[in-house]
Specification:
alpha/beta, TIM Barrel, 8-stranded parallel β-barrel, 10 helices, globular, GH, hydrolase, Glycoside hydrolase, glucan endo-1,3-beta-D-glucosidase activity, Beta-glucan_modifiers
Length: 474
């Protein structure tokens, strides 16, 4: 009689889907809830292009954090003499017992994906459902709980915000500066007046001649709209730079080597000499520059090469895709050999932006010191008053990659141009930036630039600030 009752109950349970027949032998199990959280950090990626639309550098700046929607899976199992009822939550259906279901939560990323940005891979979560065969009796049902497994991902967190300095265009006379003012300048506290950052004690001959530490220097170019500055104009400008311990020049144009050597000798200063190597029409060659430098040393310094502290074969030409890394490495070796024959024993290398120097260790290896340009203005997230820390962080990055002494060939802030993010171009911010840099550095750095360069071309990718980096006029 009891067996017949059980058979009847089973038949009724098979006919009425979803209705539990018979009397349950056990209370309901507790709800089992699995909640999966997945957090993905997405980097903001900037690609810089030149005026022809050709990409030349990529950087990641800042980051946002995105949290996936929670996936909740709830299963309630009831044991009885005849039926096991599986009740899913309405938002998470349970698959067939014989299958392994895969729940994939897609990631919606903001902005386009770029080739150099970190690989963003959606994390796939698998929830496994175990099928259990149950005899129609009071057998204990054991439900296995399979932990959520996230497969190994190749995604790595983005690095700290990285600044990519936009290179200057090739020299080209171009009058007509932009006059759009920059709002909201940074004004130093009125409680303590900060002296002009370019005013510094005159270095002594002994200190500068015997030390590897270069005094704070300044960059200079001899051009004006339509051609070269006159000899008288150049003499007047060199006089205004006499408070600096060193000067950087970029080639031999307008007889600047001769003028710079005379200035360095007169005031017992140091010279950062360079060649303007380029495959463009206005490029120089080592065969032109090195003999001109030797001639000036022989004529104005009695053949004493101590006046020259550094020599660079090029400035940002790999960044601009004008020269290859191999071109630069070969030029460094050639220049070093010829200069050693002349009697110069100082460092020889090349100047690039931080990203290019770090990504091309061959340049570091070929150079005696690592020389880089680092401009805080081109970072959307850097205020002028934080420029010193910005440049210091860049130097640490190069030191880690190159394992060599680092010299900053350019660091400054424009007094006019287009504002972007926290970077505001005006005179007050220029003073704030240079003051910040001078507080952080007391050697191995050249401030950019002594005077404005109206002969250069302003262009959108450089925030129309190419002409307005001079700070000695204010």
């Amino acid at each position: 009689m009891k067996l017949a009752g059980l058979g009847t109950a089973a038949a009724v349970g098979g006919f009425l889907v979803g209705i539990v027949g018979g009397h349950p032998l056990h209370d309901k199990r507790d709800l089992v809830t699995e909640v999966v959280f997945s957090t993905v950090t997405v980097a903001n990626v900037y690609i810089y292009v030149d005026e022809n639309g050709t990409p030349y550098a990529t950087t990641t700046v800042s980051a946002v954090t995105s949290t996936e929607a929670t996936t909740t899976l709830t299963k309630t199992l009831v044991t009885s003499t005849s039926i096991i009822e599986v009740i899913p939550t309405p938002t998470s259906p349970i698959p067939e017992p014989s299958d392994i279901s895969t729940l994939v939560t897609s990631i919606a990323s903001a902005g386009p994906a770029f080739s150099e940005s970190p690989s963003l891979i959606a994390s796939v979560t698998k929830v496994l459902s175990t099928s259990v065969a149950v005899e129609p009796s009071s057998t204990l049902i054991e439900v296995s709980s399979v932990p959520v497994v996230s497969p190994a991902s190749s995604y790595t967190p983005p690095p700290e915000p990285v600044q990519t300095y936009l290179p200057s265009p090739e020299p080209e006379p171009q009058p007509g500066p932009s006059s759009e003012p920059a709002p909201e300048p940074y004004i130093p506290p009125s409680s303590s007046k900060v002296p002009d950052p370019w005013q510094q004690p005159t270095p002594t001959a002994t200190t500068e001649a015997n030390s590897d530490r270069l005094p704070i220097g300044v960059t200079y170019d001899p051009f004006k709209v339509g051609g070269c500055k006159t000899e008288e104009e150049m003499k007047n400008e060199f006089e205004k730079m006499k408070d600096f311990g060193a000067i950087r020049i970029y080639g031999m144009g307008c007889n600047v080597i001769d003028m710079a050597v005379q200035w360095a000798k007169k005031y017992n200063r140091k010279l950062f000499a360079s060649a303007y190597l380029s495959k463009q029409e206005n490029g120089e060659t080592l065969e032109q520059v090195l003999p001109a430098l030797k001639s000036a040393i022989d004529q104005h310094a009695n053949g004493n090469w101590n006046v020259v502290a550094l020599f660079a074969v090029e400035n940002e030409k790999v960044t601009k895709h004008d020269l290859t890394v191999s071109d630069v490495v070969n030029a460094i070796h050639h220049a070093r050999n010829q200069l050693r024959g002349y009697g110069y024993k100082g460092p020889v290398g090349a100047v690039e932006i931080v990203e290019v120097m770090v990504k091309n260790p061959q340049i570091c290896e070929a150079s005696d010191v690592a020389m880089v340009n680092a401009h805080s203005f081109f970072d959307d997230n850097c205020e002028a008053r934080n420029s010193g820390k910005f440049v210091r962080d860049r130097v640490k990055e190069v030191e880690k990659a190159c394992k060599k002494r680092v010299i900053v060939g350019e660091a400054g802030w424009p007094h006019q141009g287009d504002n972007h993010g926290k970077a505001v171009a005006n005179k007050d911010n220029q003073h704030a930036a240079i003051d910040s840099i001078r507080r952080e550095f007391d050697h191995d750095l050249f401030l950019f630039n002594a005077f404005d360069s109206p002969w250069k071309t302003n262009w959108a990718a450089s925030f129309n600030a190419e002409q307005y980096w001079g700070f000695l006029e204010w």
